[in-house]
Amino acid sequence: MTKVQVNPGVCGFAVVVKVERDKERNFHIYLDTECEMVKKMAEELSFLEFRAPFSAILHNPVYRSASRNLKHAACPIPSAILKAIEVEAGACLPRPVTITFAEEQEG
User: Fold this and answer.
1) Which terminal Cβ of the chain has fewer Cβ within 10 Å, N or C?
2) How far is CA 46 from the centre of its chain?
3) What is the pLDDT at residue 105?
4) Using an 8 Å Cβ cutoff, are 1 and 18 in contact?
5) What are the φ/ψ torsions at residue 66 (nearest 5 degrees)?
6) Is residue 97 part of a domain?
7) Which stretches of the chain score pLDDT less than 70?
C-alpha cells in the first residue's frame, strides 16, 4: 500500500491518500479527509482499472472526477492521487513533491 499525506494549503482540509494494487493490478483508492468535495471524489474513485489512471489529462478518471467535484482548479489532491498510484504501480519512486512560494526581495 502507498500512503500520501497532503496539506493542500489555505483551505486547511488535509487529505490522506491510500492506494493499494490488487492481484489483477487494479487500484483501490481511499481518501481520508473532512473536505466534502474530496469525499465525493472518493466515492467515484474507490476502484480504477490498471490502465485508467495513466491516460491523458482530458480522459483521466481522476481529473474528470476533480472537474465534476472540486470548485478549486488549483487543488493539488488530484495530482497527489496520481502520484500515489504511480508509486504503487512501480512506475515512479516515492519522492516528495513541493510547491514553494519564493519571497521577492525589494530593491
Assistant:
1) C
2) 12
3) 67
4) yes
5) -60, -40
6) no
7) 105-107
How many domains are there within the chain?
Answer: 1
Question: Rounded to whole angstroms, how far apart are CA atoms 38 and 104?
Answer: 33
User: In the chain, helix, strand, coil percent, each to 5?
Assistant: 35, 20, 45
State pTM to two decimals. 0.93
* Chain centroid, CA 20 distance in Å: 13
Query: CA 106 to CA 52: how far, in whole Å?
Result: 47
Which structural domain range is residue 77 located in?
Answer: 2-89
Q: What is the pLDDT of residue 103?
A: 84
- 47, 26 contact by CB (below 8 A): yes
pLDDT digits over 23-43, tens only? 999 999 999 999 999 999 999
Residues facing 47 on adjacent strands: 28
